[in-house]
């Protein structure tokens, strides 16, 4: 019930100011955001590699209103690629990008986002890694999938994300599960109307299982984005039934959530990737993490009360 309210608050400037000023905010933000700069996030990538983990790095920030801001987002990712190259960390770290950061919502946004993201994908390929295009709200998906298809012509390892709460996603999964594809399945974290998305958690979970089966039985590379122990166990069983080896799919979880499980899955031989966000414009990302799980909101509330 609280999730839609929190997602609405993620678009409110008034709530942004309130949350940013709250005494306990930094403690909670630090749990989900790895740092503000590349220098702060590099040790986290190195530590993950030492533990047998991989990462996907997200430079947070979605409220892009000018082409210059979109170019700055592109440059932030290019800076990240250079640091990974210098430290020979490319094979352990891919990148996740939201096309809204690259100007997708601006006038001529489809072409602008493609022009801005292409050099990032090209630079990533040059150091032995890749980029995954994150899914945003349903109105952006046709553009995202078209950009994904265009990028894969030259960079076939480019990944994309699909969301189980959308009615369209099973068809998208069938289309995307061909050989060479890389697809991350998540439940979804945007407020969507009942005309396009399941509203009931049980229905979302059932769709997640159906879509995971499609991906596991396909010829691509599934990336299972979930912290739910039941869905993780089901994904393992579906992988086994599909005859997949442990390195023929991977699990992904957020930085700061169920960290012991990250290590456990890696120790079992699974590929385990930690979604690691960093940057100064953390508000939208942070609010969606609160909306996804009530325990996160309770943790935030306790922090404010104890710090106030």
In short:
With 308 residues, the chain is of the alpha/beta class. The protein is 52% helix and 14% strand.
| Strand order in the largest sheet | 1-2-3-4-5-6-7-8
User: How would you characterize the largest beta sheet?
Assistant: 8 strands, parallel, barrel
How many β-strand runs? 8
Q: Secondary-structure element order, as H and E?
A: HHHHEHEHEHEHEHEHEHEHH
Total DSSP helices: 13
Portion in helices: 40-55%
Radius of gyration, rounded? 18 Å
Unreliably modeled segments: 299-308
Mean pLDDT: 87
Overall 3D shape: globular
Distance N terminus to C terminus? 26 Å
Helix and strand composition category: alpha/beta
Name the beta content range: 5-15%
Write structural notes for this entry:
With 308 residues, this protein is α/β, with parallel strands linked by helices. Helix content is 52%, strand content 14%. Strands 1-2-3-4-5-6-7-8 form an 8-stranded parallel β-barrel, surrounded by 7 helices. α11 links the parallel β7 and β8 (271-278). Residues 299-308 have low confidence and may be disordered. FAD binds at residues 163, 187-189, 201, 226-227. It catalyses: L-proline + a quinone = (S)-1-pyrroline-5-carboxylate + a quinol + H(+). Its cofactor is FAD. It is an enzyme of class 1 (oxidoreductase).
